[in-house]
Design brief:
By secondary structure, the protein is of the alpha/beta class. It has 12 helices and 12 strands.
Length: 392
């Protein structure tokens, strides 16, 4: 059985499965990713198609107010001015200190190559595989592990109940769920140790499961944890503060067809909480070596709809945060919102490839060559050392 055929379990899932499998051999060892150095990289998938023009509003564009009479804001109406043209939605106000400290940037008018029926499933698949269509079957973050030079004893972890596509592939990755409440008593653990004392692979997996589970639990000083976004970010930050160097998790709630203001406020609050919690948990030294990339499957329509929301679009927004970011910038070539500037007379025209944003951060954090990025990680992508996104 190849590594790509293994079922990747959460550590608690491993223990739960082991208890039920006491009468049968278990063929699903936990796998880890080898990683060099101290630089860290976190991806946050914003599932549902985040409205980038709501998070970072182009209030300086003369066509914006007419397209967004209800959703659009100005600095006089609470929008947090960034640069005289773009402003931050007040729902994300806790991110302003990062912007002011140059630890936060945004990249506008970017997208994947996906242009078809605006299906969330297809869009997320292409976002996570990093291809130009659905022919890629492995995740670009998994392929990254093989492209990093001078592999060492560092690890990648997926904070989820199951492995996200972005980290799926032949390279070793661990997953850990913050939502499980399963625990084994000491006598049950002792039984498993005796049962598999002569099975080195299982014994090693059991030992790793116990040690990682203990490390995760130690992050919760009050003994409580759950599936909330702060818990997930705290877990990710705690693991990155130890041996892990790559982490990935998702934030849902961005499909804002109806009543966008309230729904967007909640989702933007989750994203803000995740980033702020990551920084607090990592501490100053680790944060200074960290890049967080938040990305979504596609943007939303430039014009708000009749139900106070927006529909599936094309051009969107990526967010970059971390002490390793040269922030305080809104990057990307702004296409304008005039009728002749929109894609299909409805969407923000994409002028950049979100994969190039990811490639620039991988180049910066892990020294992957442009050739490795364009042949192994993102096959067919155009990227070189002069990429504008390296200014982020």
């Amino acid at each position: 059985m190849t590594a790509s055929e293994r079922i990747l379990l959460s550590r608690r899932g491993f223990l739960a499965g082991a208890c039920c499998a006491a009468a049968a051999p278990v063929m699903t060892p936990i796998s880890f990713a080898a990683m060099p150095g101290d630089n860290r990289f976190v991806t946050i998938i914003l599932r549902g198609a985040m409205d980038g023009m709501d998070l970072v509003q182009p209030y300086g564009d003369p066509a914006f107010a007419a397209l967004r009479p209800k959703l659009g804001l100005t600095p006089d109406a609470g929008l947090l001015d960034l640069d005289g043209f773009f402003g931050l939605n007040p729902a994300a106000a806790p991110l302003m200190p990062l912007w002011q400290a140059r630890e936060l940037s945004f990249v506008h008018a970017v997208s994947t190559p996906y242009r078809n029926q605006r299906s969330h499933f297809d869009g997320q698949d292409i976002l996570e595989t990093g291809g130009s269509d659905k022919s890629q079957k492995t995740g670009w973050l998994n392929r990254t592990l093989a492209a990093i030079p001078q592999s060492g004893a560092r690890m990648a972890i997926d904070i989820n109940t199951s492995m996200d596509l972005i980290l799926t592939g032949p390279n070793k990755v661990a997953s850990w769920s913050s939502q499980s409440n399963f625990a084994l008593a000491e006598d049950e653990i002792a039984f498993l140790e005796r049962l598999y004392a002569h099975d080195p692979a299982f014994a090693q997996a059991l030992d790793e499961a116990r040690s990682t589970d203990s490390s995760a639990e130690s992050l919760y000083s009050d003994g409580k944890r759950g599936g909330g976004i702060a818990d997930i970010a705290r877990l990710a930050g705690g693991m990155l503060g130890k041996d892990y160097r790559i982490a990935s998790f998702s934030i849902n709630g961005w499909d804002t067809h109806v009543g966008q203001q309230a729904q967007f406020r909640k989702a933007a609050g989750d994203l803000t909480t995740a980033i702020v919690t990551l920084k607090e948990t990592l501490g100053a030294d680790a944060w200074s070596k960290t890049v967080v990339l938040a990305m979504t499957e596609f943007g939303r329509t430039a014009r708000e709809n009749g139900t106070n929301g927006t529909d599936h679009g094309t051009g969107g927004l990526a967010l970059l945060a971390g002490g390793a970011v040269d922030g305080g910038k809104v990057l990307g070539q702004w296409p304008g919102l005039g009728a002749d500037k929109l894609l299909d007379e409805r969407d923000l025209m994409p002028t950049g490839d979100v994969r190039e944003v990811a490639a620039a951060m991988l180049y910066r954090q892990f020294g992957i060559s442009p050739e490795g990025l364009t042949t192994k990680v993102f096959p067919g992508l155009s990227f070189d050392k002069n990429s504008v996104y390296l200014r982020a």
